[in-house]
Amino acid sequence: CEKGQQWQAALHLLRGMDDESVKADKISYSAAISACGKGGRWQLALDLLGEMQVRTVAPDKVTYNAAISACQQGAQWQLALNVMDVMQTERVSPNLITYNTAISACEKGRQWQLSLELLTAIQAQSLTPDEISYSAAISACEKSGRWER
């Protein structure tokens, strides 16, 4: 469902787990959040992330990355950064995928300063930026007319 962008089917299956008395876990939620993001339903992805808290299902890096990606795909850079803040508050350490997705969200929002701050934060976390990190940050500068910098 996730790969086919069938967010409705993913959501239906997630809801069907309750009907079958099967407890949805972080893997189920992560897949549904990712499917919603790929289907352009970032609000629904964030609703599912919130639902996890209500149901005492602890999100992991994969779950948070899926939610950040949903925000990125929906051009919601502020929400992507909010999810990243929540992630760190919950003591889930961001990885390179987290940072790259957040940088890409800032790129879409033409937030070149934040993109560069995130690029610096990667190294502060003892991670190594890759081609995706640099490309997204460069693109953010270019889209903002800050490529000369």
Brief description of this entry?
With 149 residues, this protein is mostly helical.
Features:
elongated
Molecular structure report:
With 149 residues, this protein is mainly alpha-helical. The chain is 70% helix and 0% strand. The protein is built from eight helices and no strands. The chain has helices at 7-19, 26-38, 42-54, 61-73, 77-89, 96-108, 112-124, 131-143. The longest helix is centred in the first third of the chain and has 13 residues, at 7-19. It starts with 6 loop residues before the first helix and ends in a 6-residue tail after the last helix. The mean pLDDT is 90.
The termini sit apart by: 43 Å
Radius of gyration: 16 Å
Please report which band the strand proportion falls in: under 5%, 5-15%, 15-25%, 25-35%, 35-45% or over 45%: under 5%
Query: Runs with pLDDT <50, length 5+?
Result: none
Following the backbone from N to C, one meets helices and strands in this order, namely: HHHHHHHH
List the total number of helices. 8
Report the major sheet: none
Principal-axes shape call = elongated
Topology:
Blueprint (H helix, E strand, L loop, with lengths): L6 H13 L6 H13 L3 H13 L6 H13 L3 H13 L6 H13 L3 H13 L6 H13 L6
